[in-house]
Amino acid sequence: MKNLIYSVAALCLLFISCSEDPDDKLIEQCTTPTNIQISEINSETATITWEDNNTTATYALEYGLSGFELGFGEILETSETTAILIGLEANTSYDVYIQSVCLDNVSMQTEVTTFTTASPLVIPEFLPNLSDLNLFTENLNDLIPSDRAFIYNLNTTLFTDYAHKQRILALPEGTSMEYVDDGFPIFPDNTVMAKTFYYFNNERDESEGKILIETRLLIKKNGLWELGNYKWNAAQTDAVLDNTTSTVPISYEDINGTTVSINYEIPSAQQCIDCHNSSNVISPIGPRLRALNGNNQLEEWISNNSLTGLSDPSQVTVLPDWEDAVNYSLEQRARAYFDMNCAHCHSEGGFCGDQSYLRLSYNTPLSESYIFEDRLNIDTRMSFYYQGVSMPLIGTTMMHPEGYDLISQYLDTL
User: Fold this and answer.
1) Pairing outcome for strands 307-308 and 177-178
2) Which of 66, 229, 345, 393 could form a disulfide with 93 if both were Cys (CB 3.0 to 4.6 A apart)?
3) Which backbone phi and psi does 324 adopt, to 5 degrees?
4) Residue 372 resides in a domain
């Protein structure tokens, strides 16, 4: 019995001694961060925030290109529950893991958080190569605009030897165009307009590719427009800033399967200025709101705040499509053709403003346009092509049969 009592006492002493061993105290597990948020993502940086219940902890972030293996990423240590990742690549997806580092242990890694950086900002400068401006995505010759630019279309277009044209507009981040009337909106400084001229190799099958010729740019700087021209290289991989004139032989199959050969003339910067001249100030030609009021473009611009000061596009007149004989009269279509192809020169302050009394804007009343008085001269100078005599003076190397037929029919009604 005495031995049993001694044994129990020894066990009790051992238990008491072990329970008081400071090395055997329970250590609280370091918990994993939660509620991870990615914000303020741009082309080079991103801000990460998270929540944490640990009373004392620092944090280790590991990040890299999506799919990277843990242990091989970039490490960022911080004592805050927020961090800014810098030096990122544009248009790139990244993975991020976060781990809490407590005094005695570390937490598990968070589940992966993935984000994609934004496209680079469009650069409103005439840099040596078109690719330098970030107007398009990586494969430049696909003509896919950056998500910081958008395509716009005109109801009636300017004739340029049957060339196709892609028109894009890039507004600076956080800005918008401001509505004034049915003419040009007020474009913010550092707006970039680009118009690319091309032909399809086969008009019956666009999948056979295109021939890119030139991309003309207008950039607004300090309230004034500047003009430059980029010529596409033979490999069709990029375009180089070149403001001199040149001739490019073009051959393609038209919609009837006929091979068409054209010596396409790229104008010099000065020739472009002649047409884009309004009282000795460079100005756009096409994107007046009346020429854009179609295909829900203005509605979209209003809804995404690209255009302010206008709530109802019906307040803006519509420049007719000169080819739409179903919805518009002969006179409306002819005046629309004059407006887009001729009015920029035949207007007050235009290139022909002092040489001719013709005023060919769509909004000019017929009685003030002098179309009737000069109808024979108009007909003659549109009926054939002779450089320096035929209308328009530059921008084309041939007469426009469909355009001439329209104008000729209209003049016969006067």
Assistant:
1) parallel
2) 66
3) -95, 90
4) yes
Distance CA 387, CA 196 (A): 24
On average, the pLDDT of the chain sits at 92
Q: Is the pLDDT of residue 6 over 70?
A: no
Domain-ending residue, one of 268, 292, 319: 319
Encoded tokens for 222:
């300090």
Domain span at residue 49? 34-116
Which span out of 272-276, 279-283, 328-332 was modeled with the highest average pLDDT? Answer: 328-332
Q: Which of 290, 319, 348 is the last residue of a domain?
A: 319
* E strands present in 53-104: 58-65, 74-78, 82-85, 93-101
Residues 151, 155, 158, 159, Cα dihedral to 10°: 110
User: Which pair of tokens denotes residue 278?
Assistant: 């309004």
Measure CA 74 to chain center. Answer: 32
- The whole-model pTM stands at 0.85
Do 373 and 274 have their domain in common? Answer: no
User: Quick one: 189 and 280 in the same domain?
Assistant: yes
Same-domain check for residues 143 and 104: no
Separation between Cα atoms, residue 143 and residue 406, nearest integer Å: 32
State how many domains the chain has.
3
- Render pLDDT for 278-327 as a digit per residue (tens, 0 to 9): 888 999 999 999 999 999 999 999 999 999 999 999 999 999 999 999 99
CA distance 91 to 41: 11
